[in-house]
Amino acid sequence: MELAVNLAKRSHCIKAQVGAVLTKETRIISIGYNGPPAGTHNCDEEFPEVGCPRDSKGSCSLALHAEQNAILYAAKNGSAIEGATIYVTLSPCIACARIIFSMKISRVVYLHSYAEYKGIGSDEGVDFLTKFGVDVERYIPTAGFLLQEQSQPIQTPLVGERVA
Ligand SMILES: [Zn+2]
Ligand SMILES: [Zn+2]
């Protein structure tokens, strides 16, 4: 999870920065952070003041989500994703949940809640995954982990924050 938090800092998106680490049998098979596909846009450089173009739900309309980038990279490189665990700094949205389920990832560990970030009542991605048998758990930071987050603050979504 510490690696996922560090990866999130590499995201060029302005509002939300999310990192994901895909692991299999204690080894890292792929990493990802949210952002437009390679070779297209860098939101922070192109839209420093106005922010990324928003989709109808208020998310960056250009970005692939961290989970999608991690899974796509693993798939592109022929890694066996079935049975993997994904660590992600924000719980998966419903679109990512569908992909995670379809790729037969068996466990999801998340740090922050997408529902809290969006100010919505239920974590629909988590609900979907749980309903169809994927293990989902919220990461409980250890003392050392918390210290690290505090000394190097990252742009994590605030509870209840609404995007424009
Ligand atoms: Zn963006
Ligand atoms: Zn997503």
Please describe the structure with a list of short key phrases separated by commas or semicolons:
164 residues, 32% helix, binds zinc ion, globular, 5-stranded mixed beta sheet, Cytidine_deaminase-like, dCMP deaminase family protein, APOBEC/CMP_deaminase_Zn-bd, alpha/beta, single chain, zinc, hydrolase
Account of the protein in words:
The protein is 32% helix and 18% strand. With 164 residues, it is of the alpha/beta class. The chain has a five-stranded mixed β-sheet. A hairpin with a 2-residue loop joins strand 1 (19-24) and strand 2. Helix 4 packs parallel to helix 6. Residues 65, 67, 92-93, 95-96 line the site of one zinc ion (ZN). One zinc ion binds next to loops.
List the helices and strands and how they pair.
Blueprint: H1 2-8, E1 19-24, E2 27-33, H2 43-46, H3 66-76, E3 85-90, H4 94-102, E4 107-112, H5 114-118, H6 124-131, E5 135-138, H7 143-151
Parallel strand pairs: 3-4, 4-5
Antiparallel strand pairs: 1-2, 1-3
The structure holds zinc ion (2 copies).
One zinc ion binds at residues 13, 43, 52, 60, 62-63.
In short:
It is built from 7 helices and 5 strands; from the N terminus they run αββααβαβααβα.
